[in-house]
From TrEMBL:
GO annotations of cellular component type: plasma membrane
Protein name: Calcium-transporting ATPase
Domain of life of the source: Eukaryota
Spans through the membrane: 48-72, 102-128, 669-690, 702-723
Keywords, ordered alphabetically: ATP-binding, Calcium, Calcium transport, Calmodulin-binding, Ion transport, Magnesium, Membrane, Metal-binding, Nucleotide-binding, Translocase, Transmembrane, Transmembrane helix, Transport
Class of enzymatic activity (EC top level): translocase
Function text: Catalyzes the hydrolysis of ATP coupled with the transport of calcium.
Originating organism: Ananas comosus var. bracteatus (red pineapple)
Entry's Gene Ontology molecular function annotations: ATP binding; ATP hydrolysis activity; calmodulin binding; metal ion binding; P-type calcium transporter activity
Subcellular location: Membrane
Major location category of this protein: membrane
Length: 734
């Protein structure tokens, strides 16, 4: 039985061991938690990284062949103009050194081309977001849920406890046709009916009342049970006395499919009372008579039934949850023996209506704003609840999920109506549904399936054991941390610790932030990759020498991979994120906007640096220096300008399509720190580590020119962002 979940009913359990001392505990201790599952974003990124890697390897292979051919045919020259390899004259050692140098160039091109920083950036972004989401009251159980949440197009939310406070109180009650609110009015009722109603409250419950001497009464149970028991106490119920006056013969526990629960109690002699309690319209439908204030049994005429229905509808329209109490007498002789009682189905026809109560569960503060924020972000919020359709509609209007009070089917629909349709019909109307009332857990599951088949990315919130299948089926399952059962939490990807719908919206915001940060990093890294690759390939093929050597390119790689990932992956979410529509399942990772930005910056860097590579000596007035020194100064200057271009471009990458790239930059201390460290290390490398990186010190004038070249990327980015791009992805256009 280990690991089983109790989904229905109640009982008493003896605990013999907990934690590590149980079989389950020992098993859990022996297996590690990491499943190594890849997130959808990582799968997409692997595709990008593999493609770039193949391109890099192909280019490096081609360069290697070209350089070796040039070298051995005597076309590769030293800076002073002498030929590096002459057949029959160059010794073996020099030949091997020359070939190794060429191999180094090819390997360097591979190192630059392969974006090994991508997995690091994803992991960093997800881990950072996870830590920050804890502060926003969301505990992430599955990493990939962080990013999937950013793509969510619809949220199917429970009503009770998520959109409402789950603090229930009875605010209206009709017993024997008399309104007993305030409870003092109970004196107007005959002892017969008041005894029956109190007996029904005390015996037909899974909660309990503890009455300490002199202290306040303590009520335990589910929120609805607590509300009803508290109301019973106000009516003068002595819980323990009421329970001792009769003995329970059989219990039919409340369940969410039947929407009612019953109990058979032996009152004394041969008299047995079968009490029922549940959803008002369902219990009312099973009643054939009702008790009036004098305790007299009256027939349930169609007029009287309509009157009760009207009361229920009026309460529901004021967003009250309606619960009805009914009973029927039964003969002790007809009660099965104890052995057979397990399978006894309690009689649920010919009931006598005792009372109808309206329970208020107030809307959570801040939920309305959160729902409106979702609407602006293109995320549709749907309410799926077991409550009466009128109650659900009233709360939906209060929360802003519904705007039209006269909304009809299929915008507002009952679970059974939805369930009765075919799969195709369900898929057709799923998009329009905003409120589903009187729904069973299975209806929720059917709705999730219908929405997913329409290509929606569905998030589902739930707290009960019965929500587990829907939580599991959805793209993102959100369980409630306070009211949620253990089973619901097990099935969920994210646990909302404060049970508040506003926290769900914060999760969406963080999810979008993860996606946006990774896009920023990809744009930044691909610009560097493309520029470094083209510059080195063109220079190598045309002159046999490369302006950026292995050590320099490894430093550039370090900036853009590790430090760049850290800087861009930790950008906090902005309000702008919630003004966009969600990223669809099929949308490409690299958007047209990113291609445009990347193309403009890469072309600028390639043009400037290749010009410097071929005409650098005359442009920088180095013709008077010795050829080898002039070559070193030129290459150092190219390296320095290249690195500074990346530093300036890092700011551009912060905002992919906004003109102001500096908004909020001072609040991101990590970003500022990393840019500062990068610049400081670059100065140290150029000025003090020349031997290690094959560079020479630069004059302050050349430093200023380098900074000026880097600075041009800012106005260039602004001009680039004014160029419109087509809606259709470039991949499809091609």
């Amino acid at each position: 039985m280990a690991g089983c979940k109790v989904a229905d009913g109640y009982g008493t359990m003896l605990v013999t061991a907990v934690g590590i001392n149980t079989e389950w505990g020992l098993l859990m201790a022996s297996i590690s938690e990491d499943t190594g599952e890849e997130t959808p974003l990582q799968v997409r990124l692997n595709g990008v990284a593999t493609f770039i890697g193949i391109v890099g390897l192909s280019v490096a292979g081609a360069v290697l062949v070209v350089l070796l051919a040039r070298y051995f045919t005597g076309h590769t020259k030293n800076p002073d103009g002498t030929v590096q390899y002459i057949k029959g004259q160059t010794n073996v050692k020099a030949t091997i050194n020359g070939a190794v140098k060429i191999l180094t160039v090819a390997v360097t091109i591979v190192v630059v081309a392969v974006p090994e920083g991508l997995p690091l950036a994803v992991t960093l972004t997800l881990a950072y977001s996870m830590r920050k989401m804890m502060a926003d009251k969301a505990l992430v159980r599955r990493l990939s849920a962080c990013e999937t949440m950013g793509s969510a197009t619809t949220i199917c939310s429970d009503k009770t406890g998520t959109l409402t406070l789950n603090e229930m109180t009875v605010v209206e009650a009709y017993v024997g046709g008399v309104n007993v609110q305030p409870p003092d009015n109970v004196k107007l009722l005959s002892p017969t009916i008041s005894t029956l109603i109190l007996e029904g409250i005390a015996q037909n419950t899974s909660g309990s009342v503890y009455e300490p001497e002199g202290g306040a009464v303590e009520v335990t149970g589910s929120p609805t049970e607590k509300a009803i028991l508290s109301w019973g106490v106000k009516l003068g119920m002595k819980f323990n006395e009421m329970r001792s006056e009769s003995s329970i013969l059989h219990v039919f526990p409340f369940n969410s499919d039947k929407k009612r629960g019953g109990v058979a109690v032996h009152v004394g002699g041969s008299e047995v009372h079968v009490h029922w309690k549940g959803a008002a319209e369902i219990v009312l439908a099973a009643c054939t008579s009702w008790l009036d204030a004098d305790g007299q049994k009256q027939p349930m005429t169609s007029d009287k039934a309509d009157e009760f229905k009207k009361d229920i509808e009026d309460m529901a329209a004021r967003s009250l949850r309606c619960v009805a109490f009914a009973y029927r007498p039964f003969e002790l002789e007809k009660v099965p023996s104890e052995e057979q009682r397990v399978n006894w189905v309690l009689p649920e026809d010919n009931l006598i209506l005792l009372a109808i109560v309206g329970i208020k569960d107030p809307c959570r503060p801040g939920v309305r704003d959160a729902v409106l924020l979702c609407k602006d972000a293109g995320v549709k919020v749907r309410m799926v609840t077991g409550d009466n359709l009128q109650t659900a509609k009233a709360i939906a209007l209060e929360c802003g999920i519904l705007t039209d009070p006269n909304a009809s089917e299929p915008v507002v629909i009952e679970g059974r109506t939805f369930r009765a349709r075919t799969d195709a019909e369900r898929e057709a109307i799923a998009n329009e549904i905003s409120v589903m009332g009187r729904s069973s857990p299975n209806d929720k599951l059917l709705l999730v399936r219908a929405l997913r088949s329409r290509d929606h990315v569905v998030a589902v919130t739930g707290d009960g054991t019965n929500d587990a299948p829907a939580l599991h089926e959805a793209d993102i399952g959100l369980a409630m941390g306070i009211s949620g059962t253990e089973v619901a939490k097990e099935s969920a990807d994210i646990i909302i610790l404060d049970d508040n719908f506003a926290s769900v919206v914060k999760v969406v915001r963080w999810g979008r932030s993860v996606y946006a940060n990774i896009q920023k990093f990809i744009q930044f890294q691909l610009t560097v990759n493309v520029a470094a690759l083209v510059i080195n390939v063109v220079a190598a093929v045309s002159s046999g020498n490369v302006p950026l050597n292995a050590v320099q390119l490894l430093w550039v790689n370090l900036i853009m991979d590790t430090l760049g990932a850290l800087a861009l992956a930790t950008e906090p979410p902005t309000d702008e994120l919630m003004k966009r529509s969600p990223v669809g399942r099929r949308e490409p990772l690299i958007t047209n906007i990113m291609w445009r930005n990347l193309f403009i910056q890469a072309v600028f860097q390639i043009a400037v640096l290749l010009t410097l590579n071929f005409r650098g000596r005359s442009i920088l007035h180095l013709n008077n220096d010795s050829p080898s020194h002039a070559e070193k100064v030129k290459n150092t200057f190219i390296f320095n300008s290249f690195v500074l271009c990346q530093v300036f471009n890092e700011f551009n990458s912060r905002k992919l399509n906004e003109l102001n790239i500096f908004s909020g930059v001072t609040k991101n201390y990590l970003f500022m720190g990393i840019v500062g460290i990068t610049v400081l290390l670059q100065v140290i490398i150029i000025e003090f580590l020349g031997k290690f990186t094959s560079t020479v010190k630069l004059t302050w004038k050349l430093w200023l020119v380098s900074i000026a070249i880097g600075f041009v990327s800012w106005p260039l980015a602004v001009i680039g962002k004014l160029i419109p791009v087509p809606e259709q992805p470039f991949g499809e256009l091609i």
